[in-house]
Structures are given as C-alpha cells and as structure tokens.
Amino acid sequence: SNTTSNPVVDIHTHMYPPSYISLLSNRTSVPYIHQPSDPKADPRLIILDSDDDPSRPKSSRGRPVDSTYSSFNKKREFMKVHGITCSVISLANPWLDFLEPESALRTAVGINDDLERACSENNASAEYSDLKLYAFGSLPLSAPAKDIVSEIQRLKTLPHVKGVIMGTTGLGKGLDDPALDDIYAALSSTKTIVFLHPHYGLPAEAFGGPSVVARYGHVLPLAMGFPLETTIAVSRMYLAGVFDRHPKLEFLLAHSGGTLPFLAGRIESCVAHEREFIANGGQTQGPQRSIWDVLHSNLYLDAVIYGQPGLKAALEAAGSVDRIMFGTDHPFFPPLGDEEGAKWLSVESNKGVIGDSFPNDEEARRKVLGGNAVRVLGLDL
Ligand code: 5CU
Fold first, then answer.
1. Superfamily of 2-17+70-377 according to CATH
2. What is the pLDDT of residues 195-240, one digit of tens each?
3. 92 Cβ closer than 6 Å to some ligand 1 atom
4. Which residue, by CA, sits nearest to atom 7 of ligand 1?
5. What is the dihedral of CA 287, 153, 131, 308, to 10 degrees?
C-alpha cells in the first residue's frame, strides 16, 4: 500500500492528552486553561507569557482550545485530509517544565503511558490500518536527575515511543548547563533522539515591549521569538562543548533549526576569532568540533519553515537531504474560517515548499516527506 511504499510521516505534530488538559484547567497562572462562563464558548489556552495580557478579559486571552488539541479522532481526521500516513505525536509546549519536583516524575509517567497506549491501540486497530501513530515522550525535567534518567530508560521499553521532546531550559539554566551531562549521557547510551522545541521566545523588550507584541498578536513571538530561542539554545550547547563530550547525541531541531542554518558560518567565524578560547590563547575551553560537523552528524532539522529560502538553508546546512523531515505543527496554525474538513493553509504551504524545492527529484521528496523519519526513528509501517 501507499502507507508502506511512500509514507508521509509528520514528526512535528502535538497533542495535549486529556490528562494534560485537566492539569492546565486546574491552574490559574501561565500555563493554564480558562473556562469562560458561557458554556458554549471554547475554553482559552493561555500558555505564552504574552498570552496573559492583563488588559484583556480572560475569556479573550490566548486562543480557543477545542477538541483538535486533545482528541485522537481529530488527529486521525486531520491526517486523512492531508494524506499523512503516520504521525509521531508529542506533548505540546510547555510540556512538564512548570511542575513541582515531587509530582513531575509521576505526571511524566502517566502522560507518556497515555500516549503509548493510544498509539498501541491505534496501530492494532483494523479500522485505522493505514494511519499509524508513534510518540515522543516527555521528561520530568524539574525532578531530580536520577528520576529524569530513569524515565529516559523506561521510555526505551515502550515500543511506540521513538524519542523525547524537550524545551530549551533544560534543568532551568539552559542546555549548556554542566548538570545536564548525566542526562545527555543517558540519552546517548539509550540512543534516544531529542526533538528540541521552543516555548519561551525572547523577552518582550527585544520587540519593543509588551504593547508592541500585543499589537501584532502571535506574529512576533512565533515567527521570530521561537526560532531565535532554538538558535540560542543550540549555540550555547555547541559553545559549551556538549557535542564534544557527547559525540553520539542526536537532536532534531524544530522549525528547521530556527536560524541556525543561516547563522552557522557566522558562529564558526566568531569562534575562530574569540580570544577567550584556549585554542586561540585564552582560558576557556571552546568547542573542538566544527559547527558544520555537528550539523552533519548530530543534528536533524524539520521542514516546518514555510518558505523555499529557509528550506534551502536547512538543506545546505544539514549537508544532506537525509537529515530533513516533514512536519505540520498541528493543531497549531488552524485555518481561521470554520470549514469542516478543509485543508489547512499552514500544511499545504509547507508541503508545497517541499514539492517546489525538488521539482525533478522524487527520491528527495520521498525522503523528506517520510523516508528519513522511518529510517532515523525506526518506525515500523
Ligand atoms: O501557536 C503557538 O503558540 C504555537 C505553540 O505554542 N507551540 C507550537 O508548537 N506551535 C505554535
């Protein structure tokens, strides 16, 4: 069938499983879900700092959160409409970052088990035989390191979990924190790929202050804050020598690596000219591997960039079409109208960019749309 010969695999597709929705619904500070007093109105999802604008009533803060965020049937409907044969589902931001240390491991286990069960039931069902589901697990990053390591090891035993999704704060101090070394060692030794995804963006001041951010809704935080957050997080890992100490670590970067593909040459040049680094006569151990080597052997990039120049930069920087993977960002960026069953502009434009980037290379299209994900994540389709 087409599912097995030419699969279309969506590696960037999120959900808030029902257990996570109830977690957010029981909170009143970011991240939280607000239930308006009108029972017919959709609840509001208030997850970004800029969503919680005190000058607006809660019933119009953030965005409506309907069943597309939590329903596996809605995920399958979306897959059918867009010809997607397999989805690797991940919890959406801000994952478990905000949990108290005491409850983090228990919550992670519950949510990861929910995803494993849903994928397992889906893949065993004759009704959905041409729609396969896998998952990226979430880590209890606020818990003690031993709990994080134990969850990494446990996830390896869940057949439908094919990696983990993580934000950019690590244990709270960023991804260059030396305290992450045990976690990176566990990820490497278990061959667990990390899907790195932004959430916190940049401070509002970077855009001219909260009132400027609010004027343009989500555009500045999502189009620029998210990709720059990813770029800074990975650059800090690189500068701190994380990829020197953990040469087998594998990261899949959201949104085609933010702006890393475009800026990699500039990063490399600044490192070569930085007197602080031992290699250049200073005292600080700088990175020993080239950023290009890291891009070509430790990093994969998704293709969620919505434009040919961005996708071309990603392909050039990744060094091979084998390191780029299709994604949709569902259920974010839904159509603004409410036409049931219509194709989504965000998905169609993204798929169009992939098609247009390889007009005469069907093999490259096949790899980006699904072949690479099957190979890298070890999906059984
Ligand atoms: O629209 C958004 O805010 C988002 C988000 O929060 N997370 C994501 O993955 N994509 C878009």
1. Metal-dependent hydrolases (3.20.20.140)
2. 999 999 999 999 999 999 999 999 999 999 999 999 999 999 999 9
3. yes
4. 93
5. -10
